[in-house]
Amino acid sequence: MTEKLNVFAVRTLTQKEYFAPGHRACQGCAEALAVRLVAKALGRNVIIASATGCMEVVSSPIPFTAWRVPWFHVAFENAAAVASGIESGLKVLMRKGRLPRKKIVTIALAGDGGTADIGLQALSGALERGHDFIYICTDNEAYMNTGIQRSSSTPFGASTTTSPAGKVKMGQITWKKNMPAIAAAHNIPYVATACPSYPIDLVEKVKKAASIEGPAYLHILSVCPTGWRSAPELSIKLGRLAVETGIFPLYEVEHGKYHLSIDFPRLRPIKEYIRLQGRFRHLTEEMIGQIEERVRKEYAELKEKAAKGVAR
Amino acid sequence: MIPITIDGQPVEGKEGENILQVALDAGFDIPHLCYNENVKPYGACRLCLVEVVRRGRSRMTTACTYPVMEGIEVLTQSEKVLRARRMIMELILAMCPGDKLIQDMAKQMGVEQVRFKKDDNKDCILCGLCARVCDEVVGAHAISFAFRGDRREMVPPFLGEAMNCIACGACVVVCPVDVIRMKEEGDERTIIRWKRTLKMKQCKVCGNYFAPWFQLEKFKERAKLPKDFFDVCFTCRG
Question: I need a labelling partner for A297 at 20 to 30 A (CA). Which of A58, B76, B214, B236 fits?
């Protein structure tokens, strides 16, 4: 119910910055905004294991760092494995009395490449073992940091440097991998999708994930003006449009129960979202119609699951 | 910078900061419910009790209302503090037995049974955070404490509808025990606890309901905006 609150509710968040300003993210980077809000929501007692990706590159150019909380840079594929190691280590140290008993939240932070492609095995293992940690995937829908190569999270029709649009093919030819559903299939206590355009909703979800015992998975859509070929000042608007068109619905899965965080009486036409981005510039009306059909179908399926209360 | 020690560890605080802020920044774990750094500290929940030793004299005080002073020694985990905190936790648990956060905190502190009369009808812990946020952050002054002693309550004026409430939802977000609920049905948003229902404004372009009329009128009045400024929603605008 908190997704439409934006004016005063945001001002009740802490004013401390744990993800400090001065990092090297591009103009209009919604991923940096998402990470900042996540850090604000969790406060001081966290340990973050961050996979290679945009957020690692922009936040830690030697000899600087943007992090004011303990932070590891780990390899591309093992953010979840390192996070589970940290969590087990903390548990043992507290049991042996070498650390005072208190709540320290362990986080694995990775982009969509580090989650859906390269880190999927480690993630699946960590979720299955049931470590008490939060996995946060900041999804900008391609390998943006190395120069916009396609990932399995790239949506259908998007033009990237390895799925270029041309005479033969019209950009990415596969559909976006449904990561939240894969995480939910592990039977973990909490899975949610969020977007920094809805800040209070995102903060509440992170806090909920931290309070729940056992693994939690958070999928955050982060608009990337560089890779999406959109204007930097439109980042927040694009995030909102992605939600309001039904392309990226915000929902939670608590112990297998689906719940839509925000529902609209009617969804916007997806053309509004697609026409603002250069990566979809080549799409014909027919292809947009094809995408719209699929988006509507997936949304209807999700709504049905939410209405039933139980599903999988 | 003002040097103090917390649990034997040297820590530095800034002028004007309170002990709780400094301790939390340094990673010490002090339980607290009524503290939010965006509003003035109030010391209502009493959970952040610590022992402060100054010039050889020790006293118990709430960390959120005690300013950092040079050379003070703060004990957050002494036997005396923990005993007092357990008692306060027990009292809070009696006030609000149903909330999960309170139950978890009580369990963590080792409070197992409540010796006081439990009142299942009451759920508010009277921390006053909602009213402070409404006054200082929002500036609406919609709610306040009424009555005294054990009849003290957080209510809208004259127990009726909160006429100044703009349904911004800041109190919904800050409430530590989650008893202020909001619901949105069709074109109406209701803050249930303050009995306030406001009509929502419909966007001229997309037709979605995006914010309460009354709230937008207040904004226009306060910022002297043109009449048609809020005709379209935040997404449809530019």
Answer: B236
